[in-house]
Amino acid sequence: MAPPGLKVTVKRWSAVASWTWTADDDVCGICHMALDGCAPGAAGPGDDSPVVWGKCAHNFHLLCISTWLQSKTSCPICRRNWEFAPSAPPPSATLAEDG
Amino acid sequence: MATAASEAALDASWNAVVAAFARRTVPPTPPRFDASALGVVRSAGAAELLVELCTEQVRSDIAERLVPAFWQKFEWARAGGAARSPRRAQCAFFAAVHDIVGELSAHAAALLALEGQLLGGSGAREGARVPQLLLHAHSLLLVRVPPGLDYTLLAVTFWDQSFRDHCAHLARHRPRRAPARAAEPCERDSDGEESESEGEEEEEGGDGEEAAVMDAPGASGDGLRALLTPAHVSSVEAFAFARASGASAHAADGVPMEVEDEGGSGRDGRRSELELRLAAFSLCCAQLARVRWTAFVEEPLQLLLCARLRAHIHTTCSAQFGRRQLERVLGWLSRQLLPWLDAISAAADARVGVGWAGAPLPPPRRPAPPSVWAVRLTQFVHETFGSLRSAELFDIVCDFPDSRAALLDLALCLRHTHQHAQLAASLRAALENRLLRPGVATAQVLQLYIQTIQALHLLDPTGLLLQRVSAPVCDYLQRRTDTVHQIVKSIIDNAAAPELGAPLLADGDGADSDADGSAGGGGRAAAPLDAALRWRPLAADADIAGSAAARARGDVLSMLVSIYGSREVFVSEYRAMLADKILGPAGARAFDADHERKNIESLKVRFGEAALQQCEVMLRDLTESRRVGRVLGEAAAPREGTLDGAFNVTVLSRSCWPALPDDEGLAIHPTVERSLSRFERLYAHHKSPRKLVWKRSLGAVKLDLEIGGVTVCDVVCTPAQATILLHFADEGRWALRQLAEKMGVDATALRRKMSHWLSRGYLVEVEGAAEATFEVAAHLGGGGQELAQAHDDDDGGGDAAGSAADALEREKETGVLTAFISNMLTNLGALPLSRIHTMLKMFLSGTRKYDQSEAQLDALLMRLVEEDKLEFAAGKFSLKAAQT
Ligand SMILES: [Zn+2]
Ligand SMILES: [Zn+2]
């Protein structure tokens, strides 16, 4: 086979991605908006609409569950007593796996 | 015997009276009837019969002698002669009227004397015969107009010449002001070439010259003395003398007939030509009035007045939108036309006149008094001016706000004429024909629509007019796909200038009156659409019309927005534009966030804070991505086989961006995929509990490529296109199907993406292969060093590309046409639309066939006018003032 006649040098590669939460649910069970979207009344998604995990593994916008917990103590989905999980489950892949 | 004797006596008396009656003279001297002869006739009871007989004689004299003699004087004027020698027509008219009226008044005087002396106040129809005769003569005149003679033209010519004399007289007696810039604009009569005053030197010579020409008796053989018989001339001179000496008794006379030296009349007793003509005219008017024939000439007079006014309006006002014109026209009417009518009226009242002394004719029928004329003509001015401006309204709108003056004039006319419906219909048609065409850019349509809104608001603050006009424009704008884009673009294009950020949609009063962009005028060029968008009607205006004003109170932007029913489309359009900018070929790195933040601020002012929230998130995504990129870049150690420093990622907050493509399947080249997954892991680690979802088809790549020793630098393309090249760099030849499999896309889509490189000649299809196969070109074609500005032509945009190509083709065609037109105008000067159209049809044939309609051509020409390449004045197009 003849040597390839084409040589390509990438000078810049601008990639695009969107972010989402490492959550099992797509939408908040309370406001029914996307979890990675904007909670009602929040200024924006992401840091302005943080998401929390319960020990029952359900997740909601922090704003939404806080409002909920003002009158209730259970998870709006599974009715179990609501307890905050300390943090999200660890990401499925770790740095160490890299080649 | 006694009977026979008395019969003979009656015969003799009868004959004596008839003979006396027939012995009329011109000028008339009341006939002397033998009293005893009258007595015999009266006692025989034949008085009525005799008067009837004499009346019949007069009647037949009128029919057989006077009327033919009248028309005999115009024998030369048949077949258009009157138009060719107006002076002669004027003199002939005067002479004809002079003679027939002289004869008629002699008849009348005789008849009145006979009636008075014979019937002695006992006759049943005494006093009715003379008016009947005059009327009879009048009708007979009109019935017997010789074939081939245009009486109306003749009479109009007579009035027209007299009017010129009048103007020359006015010009001569107008006080000379030292500086040309006088308080009252000096206007000249005549053929409409009124000096355009203001700042312009008034040609002092103009009037004087004309007067001089008129004053040179017989210089060109058309002096009054040359054209009239000596008898007529002396009659006129006597009349002029009588008027001059009795001037004080007739002070009402409209034309100040100064006895002062006018062409040397004072010294040698000869009156100047002009003076004579004026006198002849007055005499003629007096005579016409005396025989109650004003109706005979009033219709031509009205024709002339209207023609004069129309010509004056069209020549001085058409396409002159920069200054108020209506008042000048009305001024002209009252300074030039009405005094003349006064003069006519005064002449009709004049009691002096050779040939009239002692003729006890019935009181003259006066022509319509000047006040009636004034009302009639003022209305005519309003109508004519209104129609002119209505027809020009589209151009006026195009010129707005420089054409404010024209609109204010038109508004004034509308108040008198109520031509609103006509105006709305014609503007609507003009908009449809000239604006709503495929060749006109949406931005232009918008601009003009906004100007329409503003212009019509001046005409009709209630907004009803606008309502009738705007529907087709709104429908059309809605059908144009890029309208919203253009509106948003114009808002943000001007966002850089901070002073444009004035509130637009703030509810409540329009007290910030500087928002009335139209008031300043002339600001149009500086900040086109955006400035116009900020315009809103003055609150004061809007209040006039009560509830209907609500329509008008809204500003232009909300009117435009109302086309779409909501403001959301505008915000999402901006969102799409913003997304394109950030993710476009230039890439996020080159994106000027500060500039865009200003845009967002200015949009916030217009659409509200909340509506722009998503756009703010988009910008925040960008800055956050840069920050994260820096942090992660530092965290990651350089590694073989990855892109490292050349690689950057923009992370989007999905919910705030326009719908992002779902491109899970697409596989980027493994080198890059490694960079992606490395970044993905770093991100997940640093930004837990967040993770990334790649949008592999989005983004931009810049690369250098080398084919057969030739290097092409800075090629910008999409990630998919870059991936294709990278694969061909690995392997020089790929079967389409194989590569499609490798990249996770279907073959058709891949071929489309590859066409980007095929069209540039970097890749070529392998001939004669069993299946579609491509390979790297052996070498680059002629344009090797071309700096290819690559665009993503595979996703979406097919329509846009198509229409862009069409537009290009159109532009090329128009270019040829434009060149041809400007050549033509160079050679032929100014031409009207129809001429240009005909010439193009005649001269452009074959491959460059000209197949546009006249309306299309009109649109093109108007565009060239807008582009300042052509000028349009008085219905003709010409090259822009010979750029010397
Ligand atoms: Zn929620
Ligand atoms: Zn739960």
Give a nutshell description of this structure:
The complex is a heterodimer of chains A (about 100) and B (about 900). Chain A has one helix at about 60-70, and strands at about 5-20, 50-55, 60.
Please give the structural blueprint:
The complex is a heterodimer of chains A (99) and B (884).
Chain A: E1 6-21, E2 51-53, E3 59-61, H1 62-69
Antiparallel strand pairs in A: 2-3
Chain B: H1 2-22, H2 35-43, H3 47-72, H4 81-84, H5 86-119, H6 129-143, H7 151-173, H8 205-215, H9 224-227, H10 230-245, H11 265-268, H12 273-290, H13 294-317, H14 326-349, H15 370-391, H16 393-399, H17 404-417, H18 420-435, H19 442-459, H20 464-479, H21 483-493, H22 517-520, H23 528-534, H24 539-544, H25 549-553, H26 556-564, H27 568-583, H28 593-607, H29 613-635, E1 647-652, H30 670-686, E2 690-707, E3 710-717, H31 719-730, E4 733-735, H32 736-743, H33 747-758, E5 763-765, E6 773-776, H34 798-828, E7 831-832, H35 833-843, H36 854-866, E8 870-873, E9 876-879
Antiparallel strand pairs in B: 2-3, 4-6, 5-6, 7-9, 8-9
Keywords:
heterodimer, A: 99 residues, Herpes Virus-1, two-stranded antiparallel sheet, elongated, disordered C terminus, B: 884 residues, mainly alpha, Arc Repressor Mutant, subunit A, 3-stranded antiparallel beta sheet, 36 helices, binds zinc ion, ANAPC2 (chain B)
